[in-house]
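FAQ
Q: What does a multi-component entry look like?
A: The components come first, one per line:
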Amino acid sequence: MAFLPSITKELRPGPVKDWSPALAAILLLVLCLVQAAAAATTPAPSSARSTLARVIFSPDISEQATLLRGLIGSTDPGVEAVLTAWRGGSLFVHDNPDGSQTAFLLDPTTDGDGHAQGLSILDDQPIPGPDAKPLLFSPSELTPADTTAKLRKAIKNTLDFMALGNPDPRFRKDAVVKLGQERNLEYLPLFEARAREEKDPEVSRRLAEALALTRTASPDPAVRVPALRTLGELRSVTSLSFLQSFEKKLRDGPTPPNDESLLAVHKTVLDIETYQQRGNLIGTAFRGFSLAAVLLVAALGLAITFGLMGIINMAHGELMMVGAYTTYVVQNLVRSAFGPSGLPLETYFLVALASSFVVTAAVGLILEQGIIRFLYRRPLESMLATWGVSLLLQQVFRHVFGAANVQVGSPSWLSGSLVIQDVLFAYNRIFVIFFAALIVLGTWSLLTRTSVGLQIRAVMQNRAMASTLGVRTDRVNMLTFAYGSGLAGMAGACLSQIGNVGPGLGQNYIIDCFMIVVLGGIGNIFGTVTASLGVGVTDQILQPWLGAVMGKITVLATIILFLQWRPAGLFVTRSRSLEG
Amino acid sequence: MFAAALVALAIPPLLNAITPEGHFLHVSAFTLSLYGKYLCYSVLALGINLLWGYTGLLSLGQCLFFALGGYALGMHLMLLIGKLGQYKAEIPDFMVFLEFPARFPTTGGLPPHWIPFRSFAFASAAVIWVPGLVALVFGWLAFRSRIKGVYFSILSQALTYAATLMFFRNDFTFGGNNGLTDFKVILGHDINTPATRRALYLASAGLLTLTYLFCRWLSRTKFGLVQRAIRDSENRVLFSGYATSHFKLFVFVVAAVIAGLGGALFVPQVGIINPSEMAPEKSLEAVVWCAVGGRASLVGPILGAIGVNALKSYATHAFAEQWPYLLGSLFVFVTLFMPKGLVGLPDQFRALQRKWRKGVSNP
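Then the predicted structure of the entire assembly, as tokens:
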């Protein structure tokens, strides 16, 4: 313990900048000699490692940069680790008793006092002390090897180049994009070498982009112009901002306006902009469709209970909330039974969908039997009673689960997004679109292809007549309401994958849902589908211009005005009854 | 009966004026304002009753008109604050921190449509015509295309929802989600003195009395008869040659104006008006006051508004957590078991009694 302070005193930061090159050369020579001597007893350091040591102790930044460049292509993973540590300020230098220096990293394993062995960068072996035992260093008393901003940049650059050889294509892609943005002509051979080996299509594309982008820096128009064209052909969205400023520079510069580069860059910018606009259009359309799907999923249950049965169920939103919380409970059950990851958690959502249907349908059944069936002839009152139910349900869930939102996790197959031509398609949104299509199809076939559906439609069109013909109208009502509620529950389960799950979940959707059902026309499922599509897509088109709130207000106002033109909604169910 | 009610209305301000503070009969200025608030709500309920109880139109957006009336007077009160505000500026505080002087440099930061509200007369007129106009436009659109029943309810709810979203926006120039608050003076009097509070209470009581008398008069005219006929069977009235949509539009506008007047007196007594006052759930709550008291009667809505709000004031202090349960159950219970509300209870009991007697006499 007592000798520690004396050792740490000997530790000095890395190279001092004002050393004359001669001194440095001598030092290097000494170092090499020491290393050669050491090589006799320990395994010989790889050439990359010794280059590394030379970089660290070289006093000259340009020499360091050149040496660093030489490290690219090294297959030794230790080199990357040392460079990362150096850049991050956790590389240290030890003055050997013979006057030489050893750069080292601290062993991550420490003893009880927080001291650790120093592992030489040359061979990863502990630095031996005077008694041949490994020396111990205290991290708090060490000063990291010196770096300058310029040097750190050079190291980063080297690391990026090393990442080009990383087995993970994502790292390679990021590195290529970053290096391409620098437009450094010296990188060209490296890119070319990499491009010959690259197998991953995405990285290959990025490499081509980086190559073209770098070539635009060439003073030779014969290189520059084709490169600009290539960027246009590649639809390189990432280089658009550079190209725009490049075009501006060329325009404002002394070059004559008919310069070929200017023409090329202008065309490229136009190409990419058109491409980007198309992408935005597709993106907006996709978001519109996905919003439409969300609304459709939420409104379909209402289209059943309100459209077919004429019941204004103000608690519809809360039934969605019940479904969302059911998902949450199922998730927690699965988690506590099978642990925090693995196949059960990947598939829990399908179970949760089914259980949210069952649970919510049961709640709907109770609601219908307990309250709504007494109010079939008083629709306005059924509205008030169900609003009361919605207050009750909200408060119950607030009591049980707390007022804050709960966390519902997504299985891995629902998180992330698909990228096609620079447009993002989120998996959960895609899922909702498919799910919406599925339940619409299911509901439609239930109503038109089964005897239950026939009965439902009969009761809807003429309750008294259906009753005289032997349809048990009260039972049909009960089941229809339960089915509509169950759909609301599944909608809630779906929404748990898209937005927050909290006691106020239902309130966010209820008015939109009602508007969609009214807009679509009562008792018509395809009206509901059309209305959700119209509202969803309009909302997404308006949003960039007007903002989310104004967009919504505009949509609401448009619906009110639209009903002037078609008071019964988009699709009218024809009926001879006067009061229908 | 009517005279007794008038006397009862006059008691709280009288007690506030003649008894010293701390006396066991003393009614504090705060309590007086609370009662004043109930009276304003009663006015709103009377308007709803005119629509729902007598015409069969359930509007779920009445609180929008209530809040519009409130905003109209609130704007005037806001401008009266002047340099008494925290920023010591000519314009209301929220305009200072929302950087309105940069947006409206020619008027010193005051949005142009605020300027006429410096005049009390203009603001009072706006209390009437703003809700009336909104109701006229919306009602004309709705009734023209024969939107009725639950569709009308849903559309009116969408209207108030859209308005709430609008008023929540800061750049809509009505104070965003904070609304208008921190009033200091009204008509040259400090708004917080007991004397002003008494005057405001009396004004509310007066408004309630007038509204009550108006509704009573209207229901006894031929117009009132048509109104109820529309409620019971609109098509028969239509086929008898009455333009039902005009009748409905008139009642809708009148109810909106009534609501606006109630809102205008509500604001100085409560001291704040913000967009949450026009949120869809507020309108639903107001409908329930009517349902609890008993619709299609004139006393019922007043009874319901005062009763439910007194209960709410008590419950949110005593057991805030349970209040939504109580309110929700009230909704369900009243619609299921008391279709005629408190006013209809005696009849219900009598019917029950008759049934029971019958059961006893011939078992």
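Q: Is there any commentary attached?
A: Sometimes. For this entry: Chain B has one domain: 34-361.
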